[in-house]
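@channel sequence for tomorrow's demo:
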Amino acid sequence: MTRPPRIRSSRRTHRAAAVLGTAAGTLFLLSGPASAHVRVFADGAKEGSPATLRFRVPSEKADATTVRVDVTLPKGVTSTGIPPAAGWTRKEISSSAGGGTQIMWTATAGHELKPDAHRYFDVQVGPLPKRASVAFDVAQTYSDGSVVNWDERQTGTKMPDFPAPVLVLDAAAAKAEETRQQASAQPAPTAAASPASVAVPQAQASGGVSWLPWTVAGAAILGAGAVVVIRRRTPVNSA
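structure tokens (generated this afternoon):
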């Protein structure tokens, strides 16, 4: 006994909607912001104590390798040692003008950092300054001669394209400073502005991707797919 055409059409419609939903979910994942930036870590780092800084450097260019990494320590941060990095030479350059110390790692032949790979470069430092956070300037040189400077500071709610790696020493103070900056950078909505017109810019200013356009597009795709399947599968009653 065959099933009624309407039941078959309904089940196929649900399958099509599920497939379209999976595709829309994949689109959302691919549209997320890239998170592969230079970072700095230090286990147990706190004000007034020595620490080992670990700089995580990803090689982001698809057609070139990373051949050199330069880290500049800001004033108040003093290098006490540079652990060896296998396959890389290291050199410390002290600033004579009162600036920060520069540490340079250069890859030896065959040890360049390949695309989509990353590695850590360590620096031992003396007592850290009494600050909420410390930012470092990092220059990344590729085999094609290009240099990416990771030295941009975040001053508002929008994340810069090439942010300087930041080591947080006092989480509460750093959060308070971030909140203050966001409050000063966020324009107050006018009385005539509707809630909908204010919501979208605020979502976009958060430093991430606004999901509203993608949500609307995904809903439209799902609806369109279901309608097409129903129209194709629902039998036409003869007069």
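heads up for whoever presents: Helices lie at 5-30, 171-185, 195-204, 212-233.
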